[in-house]
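User: Design a sequence. Structure:
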């Protein structure tokens, strides 16, 4: 076991049953995880730590999970830690008696503010003499509660209060603690701990600490260890709330988790995603032997509408953000469309901008001009229409395991079309290439992006929360025979403009995300597709995010160094002619070629993706897959 009582004594803390977990114990685990890149070793460290927590201090398990994931509440509440660099520098400078400039210089040299804090902290003799005082030792609940407080502080004096709170934590830090504390406050732990790994370890720790498990024969033990992570992962994709899952686990273990935690109106589930394709033949090969349907792929934003039994209606975005205040008009429309005998439901829709005079769809760009906050119905200038495509929950019952054919029938029976306000997506049960081609042409004429092709019957047509499933295929008109899809990339740097672009940035450096290494990998420089007003908007937004040095989690080559770096904060949808192997870009490095990455040829800016966080950008695995698929099925 990694962290035992002796280890804790070494760092001057006891960890006794029933007492709060020392923050040092968590940091020791982080350190161990950071020291290896081997997935199994990482899992071993974390599982062993979770076992300790379950046995000694189960009441801290929830806080521990949040600290491992760098969050302070469920993902769908959208509270970001991400304290700005200058605030952290101020706090570090004051606690260690240095000037902010000194801390900045050190940051430029080391590249990691966590390390800077640790090094400057450990060199401060006068302050470290305060350590050893047991009352001052940090505990997990103390750190977690402070972080939560910091995340929720707002208002004009909040900056000062945040600095004070951070200083209080820093003063009580020792050893490796400042490093992880600062990284957590930055919103990036950077120890290579993906959420899927956390879920696996959590499941396995609950299995091995269960007394029944200890009595099982070896083969049965192995089976339990394989099954448990599947249960937790599937429950989490339906109900992404540790606030609900952890108490249920502590009460009744993993095996009974599904009985306590399932899809619940009011809590957004992770949406099912589609797999890109680039030819009708590829689509037909995949769906062969199945009943399938083709639907228009509307160009708006996803809306997951929840009606709760208490009568409230909410709408969530693709990344689970509560958009109810953004779309008061949608709430009204959907309430009219639901038939009277419906008291609770979860409906998957696309919200699209709509021309009330011409009665047709408007492009996404029009939708994106709508206000996001404090929307008053009377002031809404862009009308929207809802296009429903799936029903996931109805009158107290989850429909996730039902076939799409059944879900669709229930949807048709439970809602009614309302001109200009609510429609079911246009669909056709096509059977051959010609029919699909004709329907695709029709979709494009109607201002849609192309088609979604979905398996209709059998087990494979169940709704798979959070999965990019091959049972849903997207066929985008622009991508036939090409890359197959647009990419959603993070802007990490910019180059000063020339000629008529001197007052704005002229080109940008983009990156994809690699969740395994928790890093952004550069993929291309982009200077095309921007209108003058786009460039102005980007400049005004991004100049606030400038950093003199790149974050250590940006993987780039000197040859592509931009004039300014940014805090990764915005996702852009980008089109490209194709993907190629590159000696200077780092996307998917090691996946297709051992040392070279992949880059985009002729990238073109499409739009800002406000509904995706930087960590939800196209992953390096997807980039590698798009690269490899270029050579298949090209016709
Ligand atoms: P992804 O969601 O696959 O990561 P993305 O966000 O770029 O990629 P798209 O490639 O545009 O999304 O395709 C999926 C999205 O298409 C869905 O999330 C949904 O918002 C939208 N959509 C439009 N019409 C439909 C439909 N008929 N069925 C399902 N989704 C649809």
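Assistant: Done.
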């Amino acid at each position: 076991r990694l962290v035992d009582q002796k280890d804790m004594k070494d760092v001057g803390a006891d960890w006794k049953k029933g007492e709060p977990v020392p923050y040092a114990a968590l940091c020791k685990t982080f350190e161990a995880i950071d020291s290896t890149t081997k997935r199994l070793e990482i899992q071993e460290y974390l599982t062993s730590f979770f076992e300790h927590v379950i046995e000694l201090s189960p009441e801290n398990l929830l806080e521990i999970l949040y600290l491992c994931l760098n969050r302070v509440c469920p993902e769908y509440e959208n509270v970001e830690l991400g304290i700005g660099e200058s605030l952290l520098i101020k706090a570090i400078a004051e606690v260690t008696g240095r000037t902010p400039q000194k801390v900045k210089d050190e940051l430029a040299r080391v590249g990691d503010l966590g390390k800077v804090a640790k090094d400057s902290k450990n060199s401060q003799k006068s302050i470290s003499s305060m350590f050893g005082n047991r009352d001052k030792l940090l505990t997990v609940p103390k750190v977690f509660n402070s972080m939560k407080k910091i995340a929720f502080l707002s208002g004009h004096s909040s900056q000062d209060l945040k600095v004070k709170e951070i200083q209080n934590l820093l003063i009580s830090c020792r050893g490796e603690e400042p490093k992880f504390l600062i990284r957590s406050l930055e919103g990036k732990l950077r120890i290579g701990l993906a959420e899927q790994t956390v879920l696996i370890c959590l499941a396995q720790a609950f299995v091995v600490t269960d007394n029944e498990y200890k009595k099982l024969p070896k083969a049965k033990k192995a089976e339990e260890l394989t099954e448990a992570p599947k249960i937790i992962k599937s429950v989490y994709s339906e109900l992404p709330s540790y606030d609900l899952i952890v108490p249920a686990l502590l009460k009744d273990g993993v095996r009974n988790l599904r009985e306590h935690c399932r899809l619940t109106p009011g809590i957004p589930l992770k949406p099912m995603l589609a797999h890109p394709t680039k030819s009708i033949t590829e689509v037909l090969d995949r769906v062969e032997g199945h009943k399938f349907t083709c639907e228009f792929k509307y160009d708006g934003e996803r809306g997951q509408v929840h009606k709760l039994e208490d009568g409230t209606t909410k709408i969530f975005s693709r990344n689970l953000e509560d958009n109810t205040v953004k779309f008061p008009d949608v709430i009204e429309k959907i309430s009219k469309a639901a038939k009277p005998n419906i008291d609770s439901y979860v409906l998957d829709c696309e919200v699209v901008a709509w021309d009330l005079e011409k009665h047709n769809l408007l492009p996404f760009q029009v939708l994106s001009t709508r206000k996001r906050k404090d929307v008053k119905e009377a002031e809404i200038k862009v009308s929207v229409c809802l296009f429903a495509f799936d029903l996931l929950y109805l009158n107290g019952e989850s429909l996730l395991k039902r076939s799409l054919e059944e879900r669709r029938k229930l949807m048709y029976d439970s809602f009614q079309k309302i001109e200009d306000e609510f429609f079911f997506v246009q669909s056709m049960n096509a059977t051959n290439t010609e029919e699909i081609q004709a329907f695709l042409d029709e979709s494009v004429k109607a201002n849609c992006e192309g088609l979604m092709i979905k398996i209709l019957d059998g087990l494979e047509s169940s709704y798979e929360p959070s999965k990019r499933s091959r049972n849903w295929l997207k066929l985008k008109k622009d991508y036939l025979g090409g890359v197959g899809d647009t990419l959603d990339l993070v802007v990490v740097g910019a180059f000063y403009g020339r000629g008529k672009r001197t007052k704005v940035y002229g080109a940008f450096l983009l990156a994809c995300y690699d969740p395994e290494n928790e890093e952004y990998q550069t993929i291309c420089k982009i200077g095309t597709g921007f209108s003058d007003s786009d460039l102005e908007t980007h400049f005004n937004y991004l100049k606030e995010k400038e950093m003199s040095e790149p974050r250590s989690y940006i993987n780039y080559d000197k040859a592509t160094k931009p004039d300014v770096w940014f805090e990764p904060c915005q996702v852009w949808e980008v089109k490209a002619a194709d993907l190629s192997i590159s000696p200077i870009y780092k996307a998917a490095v090691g996946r297709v070629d051992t040392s070279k990455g992949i880059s985009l040829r002729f990238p073109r800016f499409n739009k800002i993706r406000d509904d995706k966080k930087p960590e939800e950008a196209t992953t390096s695995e997807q980039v590698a897959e798009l690269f490899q698929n270029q050579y298949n099925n090209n016709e």
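Residues 218-238 form the longest helix (21 residues). Residues 76 and 320 are 5 Å apart (CA to CA).
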